[in-house]
Amino acid sequence: MATFVPRKLSLIPIAFVVALVAACTQQPAAQSSGSPTASASAAAKGTITVIAQWGGGERDAFQKVIDAFTAKTGIAVNYEQSRSLEALVRTRVAGGNPPDIVFYSRPGPIGEWAKAGLLIPLDEPVGKEILDPKAVDAALGKSFQDLGRFNGTLYGYLFKADSKSTFWYKPKSLQALGKQTPKTWDELLAIANAYKSAGKTPFGSGGKDGWVLTDWFENIMSRVASPKDYNDLHVTHKLAWTDPKVKKALTTMAQLFGTAGYFPGGGQGVIGTQFTDGIAQAFGKNATAEMFYEGGFVGSIIGTDINKDLKPGDDYDFFTFPSIDSQFGTPLTGGGDLAIMFKDSAAGRALMQYIVTKDAADIYAATGNGTPSKLVDTSKIPSALAKKLHEQIASATVFLFDGSDLAPSALGGDYEFTALQDLVTHPNDVDRIAEGLEKFAKTAY
Amino acid sequence: MSRQHSRLTPWLFAAPAAVLIAVFIVYPTLWTIRLSFYGGQGFNFTNFVGIDNFVRLLTSDQLFLDLSKFPPGGAVINNIVWLLLYTPLVLAIGLIVAVLADKVRYESFIKSVIFLPMAISATAAGIIWLFIYSPDPNIGLLNALLTKVIPGFQPISWTGDVNLVNPAIIVAAVWINAGFVMVILSAALKGIPTEVLEAARVDGATPLQIFARIQVPLLGPTISVVTVTMIIYVIKMFDLIFVMGGNNGGPLGVARVIAFTQYVETFNNGRAGYGSAVAVIMLLLVIPVMLFNIRRFRAEAGR
User: Which residue of A182, A201, A313, B165 has the fewest C-beta atoms within 10 A of its own C-beta?
Assistant: First the structure.
């Protein structure tokens, strides 16, 4: 018996492949980027590739620094944005085609790459350093420098720093409620309850992006335990996840997310919402929530991407993440992006040297983005909000770097995300989740 | 001399393909298998660990295989869920549309509309469905519809709920591929001689009988081709989950499938050896399907 697979069938896969190829070839066009000013004249001076995670307003801000650099040196910069930066960089390194310079927010893998000999040292050999140690000292305080230092050698320069202890709120809405910005956790809960009884949802959050939840946890952890405990938990894992101090932090977090009516859709709603959608819950055109906790960069995202009609200071502002246990106060937790070099070239060196300068810091600070540079002329920061953010970082006595970014990737960039999503949807299972984290952490260090 | 020449000729013809397969498939496969016995940081053969990667994957990695609870979970189980839900669903919808469209005047229009999602990349399709599933009824079509139709309905976070995220992504995949199944089955349907169908009608067969007793059996070989294609699609499944489930593969990582775990462990977590072990397990699962396919091709060629 003959089978009834007709001849014309073979055309279908071909048509499919053609469609696929067409779809594929379109993508690079949409992705291609780079400064428009840098084309013909720059070819002679070389082109360098820079990869960073910044998109939207953050990307525009960095583009201003790049444009100034290109105008000054004639070196073209090809900026690539990646949501999965670590995967991209690892693949390119393994394939023998590393990018020139990467701006990355996780010192954990940066240390790993430095140890593997993949990065160019920035302060060696003496006398022929890429970055003049005096220039670095003039720009960065020691604690900020040390984030890019591994075994005594400087591999990363902290170009951008963001406070992650900023709680965003609506001044008008809070006034209408008759409340002041909270200094303590109890005051925060009182505000939340007042909103709740007024028929409003106090908090928005986008925990589908797991790092949002790790940032919540780190603020709470830094307020119920000492900075040493905080670092022991994340950097060295000398402190167990099952330690009572850690469990206290987990429990505090679980109780907040587990309280009905605090978040749109409860814990389940939180983990179904992406980060920027979470901001929109509180500050979008159809806002359903009143406050939003995440880092200082939220301000510039509200202004450029979420709702351009809102006025900073009047419609949105921030207070410092309130203290929980008075003996630990309100340490600043924060993140940042370090510039690291995979490939040595004159053009690459020029960019590294440029981002350390006062010019670059001023241009970047003027966009309202956080910079740790001491060289910034604060009078040039146009918005009061950006100034307030800069001062919060500059005046910090205790700066704790984002713990999940210090931890190994498998834990801080993967397992901890899923574990904390588990926590906010199962607030009664603190013990089980702490044990899961501890068991995983034992295999990760 | 001429005999020798003719013996060489087939090899010459096969050589380009053989070289490509050796370079791009055989060599990387062997390399991956070797790497799966190492820690493999930086894709180097350093830190030999023997079969530790496999032991850990199968016994203590809850995101890969978790038999400790009921129903069991993890990436392997998710692939099975996909096989059981996605494959029959996409086949059934493709088949039904192919048969029904055959009977109406606007056949080519209907088929074009259903085939259209095939022309969209998986990334774009995933983003479209993320909008549909958004928990905010001002954005999410599905929740907007349900809140309008059902009074007092609370918007559901379709991709944020551990129980709903897998079916939600499977529906999107069905939407993408039903058109592909439909077009192939529809073409095969056209190949069924009309005499057979007329004879059946003359003998008094109902449309349902014609469908079940004549059309489906005659479509058998085509259905099995499509089924195998879909099974391989499921085992390789990655893109939709990465787009719709986010970087950690759904809430609590419950939407992870084997290929997703391979990606996360290799590239995100930098554990190339561990990721390679996942790839080897995936390879072992694909081999029986491939063998089945090859045997069937041979059987057909022999006829």
Answer: A313
How many CB atoms sit inside 10 A of residue A195's CB? 22
Is A438 found in the same domain as A341? no
- Beta-bridged to residue A335, according to DSSP, are A162
For residues B184 and B163, give the distance between their C-alpha atoms in angstroms, rounded to a whole number.
33
One domain, residues A300 and A316: yes
Q: Are residues A298 and A178 in the same domain?
A: yes
Is residue B74 within 8 Å of B257, Cβ to Cβ? no
Q: How many domains does chain A have?
A: 2
Residues A40-58 pLDDT 10s: 343 447 899 999 999 888 8
Give a yes or no: residue A21 inside a domain.
no
Q: Are residues A72 and A139 in the same domain?
A: yes
For residue B218, which residues of chain A lie inside 8 Å, CB to CB? Answer: 4
Q: With an 8 Å Cβ cutoff, are A4 and B187 in contact?
A: no
pLDDT computed for residue A40 by the predictor: 39
Residues A118-172: pLDDT tens digits?
Answer: 999 999 888 889 999 999 999 988 888 888 999 899 999 999 998 999 999 999 9
In the DSSP assignment, the letter for residue B154 is P
Q: Which residues of B touch A443 (CB under 8 A)?
A: 56
Window 175-194 of B: residues touching A by CB (8 A cutoff) are: 180, 183-184, 187-188, 190-192
CA angle A394, A103, A350 (to 5 degrees): 95
Q: Does domain B75-255 have CATH number 3.90.226.10?
A: no
- Domain extent for A71: 40-163+334-401
- Which residue in chain B is spatially nearest to A1 when comparing CA positions? B303
> Does A158 share its domain with A170?
no
3-state secondary structure of B266: helix
